[in-house]
Design goal:
single chain, 208 residues, alpha+beta, 3 domains, two-stranded antiparallel ribbon, 5 strands, 45% helix
Length: 208
Amino acid sequence: MIGTGSRVGEVTGLRWCDIDLDDGIIDINHTLVYYDHRDENHKKGCYFNVNTPKTEAGKRQVPMLSFVKEAFIMEKEYQQAMGVKCEVTIDGYSDFIFINRYGGAQHFGTLNKTIRRIIRDCNDAELTKDPDARVLLPHFSCHSLRHTFTTRMFEAGVNVKVIQDTLGHADISTTLNIYADVTKELKKDEFIGLDSYFTAKPRNQTSP
């Protein structure tokens, strides 16, 4: 999630046929969702469904960063070594990449619990070294990783249109509105650099 900017349901819904390790491409074309079905058109209760994107922008291809590709390869090797494979079919979709030890689909709630444990363990380790440590991990969720990825793209100077396409936003204004705070911070940083440039550059004494 932190290397693709994808939504948690898009990641948990990925199948092995949705990724191309040779060309380094992730094909996002559906979302795995888990919710309480209450309307009369569905069987009552909480269970998984697969939804297709509401807009064409939701269907997209995301290039793999090197560490993302490495993570896919490590997961594949781990499952082969442990004899773990997908044992579930949801709305005709199977062969999911990210599965639990029973071969079932991953639940976003489980992922958030795992993140909380990682935060706890990291902070405990820091506090063990220094009881007065002030730099600790804050609480964050799966969605925070999408935001972090987007922030890094802005900071790296990636074209906003590329960011829009990568995130699957149908309207570019959504990209700019949601991440307006990021652009504000980047603008401030740019002007700090500009101020340094003007301060360091010799000025003509007759200039106004």
